[in-house]
Structures are given as C-alpha cells and as structure tokens.
Write a structure and sequence with these properties.
26% helix, alpha/beta, three-stranded antiparallel beta sheet, Rossmann fold, five-stranded parallel beta sheet
Length: 302
C-alpha cells in the first residue's frame, strides 16, 4: 500500500464519480474500457494540484481497507449537478491496491445479477450515478441522517438509516460527556426529516432489496463515517452477498474505524491532513432535493 501519493483535489462530484467508478469497476473485475454508451473516463496522468489553502503534504494514499463510513462538512452555497457530458482533466489516481494478489474468496465469484449501487443523499447521489453508469449497475438510495451533538449539529455523534435503530459513536459521546438519552429529541427530529425524504425521493417505492446481491454504498466523502456505518448496519440485516463502501476521499480514522462494517472500503484519497470533505473539492456546493431527483431520473430503480 503506497503511503506517499499526493492528495487528490477533485473538480466536483461528477469528476469524483467518474474516477471512483473506474476504480470500482477494476476492483469488480470489469472490462477496463467503459461500456458502450457510457461516458469515457478522463485520461489519467494529468494531476490536479491542490488549490491554495490545501495541504500539499504527502497523503496516506488510496487505502482499500476491508470496511466503510461517511459524513460531510457544511457545504458552501447551492449548486446544480453538472451535465453528464461535462468533464475536465482530473488528478492522477494512484493504483495502490493489492491487485496482484488474486481474490479467491467466495464473494469474488462474479454475480449473475447487476451490482446494486446505493447512494447516500444528497452528496453521494451524483457520485453514485457515475459509478452505476460505469459498471452497469442498478441505482437506488439509502436514506440516512446524522445525529449532531447538542449545540454542534455539524459534529456527528450518531446516525439513523431507514427504519433501523440509532447508531452512536461511543467515543464521541464519552468525549462530550453526553448519553444517548440526551439525544432523544434530536433523534426524533431526524426521524421526521428522514420520513420526509423517503416520501420525496421514493414517491411510494419500497426501500431497495439487497438480499443476496453485491451492494456498493457510495458517498462523496467520509469524515466521521457515522452515517455510512448506520447505513451499512441497516444493509447487513438484509443479508447482502457482499458490501463495498466507496468514496472519493476519506479521513484516515473513518476508513480504519469501519473495517468491521463492510467487506471492502475503496477510497481514492486518504489525506493525513483531512479536516473536512469539502476541503478536497474545488466545487462542493450544497445540493437540493430537486438535484437528487434529476440525477436519479435516468435510472430504473430497484
């Protein structure tokens, strides 16, 4: 595993999704060339240097840990998704996974059904769209909400996913000197918002069925990882064949702490100086419900 790769700064979620889709396809053993009708990936090798203010120090590099996680920092302003035809030269993504060692586990045997790509809205949706298009997978969403600390809603100390129970970060609770009971009102509020999003995004469709399938959970980055942990534990109860967490950029602690929650974690960049997901995007604007609906409109949902 390479430890001296430079951190990657992505132009936007669209570019991040293209690059992540290429890596996911490689890890799944798909043909390295895009399928007919799919947007080709930008040619690698033309690295995108970190913008002023980004830490140029060496990163830990791409880290395919056997695990997952999620969360992101407050975004700046509002933005609509880039058109599918838009592209710009991305950073070179170092190939540092142990691909020379064959995967002989049962889960490495190809599935006869398409992989199920599940996005964590809102930020994970445009990334997941590119991943699903690249591998020819089915696309849907998993609804999850972060549970923020009292007085610090941006600091995730727990999360809920779909109809699953709350999942808390016990270390964060101990650090802040609070208990799960102290967060009961916050959990109630987030469940109400979760229910609203279920109605808005699914419009009566059931939650995705993951039983027996290879499932790829996608977000635009992992900060604390608590939201992805809740989603993965909800998925675990459905008995998927294999779970993969994929994100363009991950905090080192998030990737490592979630090693028990998924079969594989794919992170294109794991900067040691990670402070927030948005730090590693030139364009990390807040997305809306309308953006999510538009991005999902080109796929048949499971």
């Amino acid at each position: 595993m390479v430890r001296d790769a430079s951190p990657i700064v992505f132009a936007d979620r669209d570019e991040a999704g293209r690059l992540l889709g290429h890596e996911v396809a490689r890890r799944l053993g798909h043909d390295p060339s895009p399928a007919p009708g799919h947007d080709p990936l930008p040619a690698p090798g033309r690295g995108h240097s970190p913008s002023p203010g980004h830490d140029p120090s060496p990163a830990r590099g791409y880290d395919p840990l056997p695990a997952p996680g999620r969360d992101h920092s407050p975004a700046r302003g509002h933005d609509s998704l880039r058109a599918p035809g838009h592209d710009r030269s991305p950073s070179s993504v170092p190939d540092t996974s142990p691909s020379s060692v064959p995967d002989t586990s049962p889960s490495s045997v190809p599935d006869t059904s398409p992989a199920l790509v599940l996005a964590l809205p809102r930020g994970g949706v445009p990334v997941a769209v590119r991943v699903a298009a690249r591998i020819g997978g089915d696309l849907d969403i998993v609804l999850a909400r972060k549970i923020g600390a009292p007085g610090r809603p941006e600091f995730g100390v727990g999360a809920i996913a779909e109809d699953g129970p709350p999942v808390f970060d016990e270390g964060s609770l101990a650090f802040l000197g609070i208990t799960e009971d102290d967060l009961a009102d916050t959990v109630t509020k987030e469940r109400a918002e979760l229910a609203r999003r279920v109605r808005r995004y699914r419009e009566g469709r059931p939650a995705p069925a993951a039983t027996g399938r290879t499932v790829i959970l996608v977000d635009d980055g992992l900060a604390t990882g608590v939201t992805a942990r809740a989603a993965l534990r909800w998925l675990h109860d459905q008995s998927p064949r294999r779970t993969i967490l994929a994100a363009p950029v991950c905090a080192p602690q998030a990737a490592e702490s979630l090693a028990a929650d998924a079969d594989t974690v794919i992170c294109l960049s794991v900067p040691p100086s990670f402070r927030a997901v948005g730090q590693w995007y030139d364009d990390f604007h807040q997305l809306t419900d309308e953006d999510v609906a538009l991005a999902m409109s080109g796929f048949a949902h499971t």
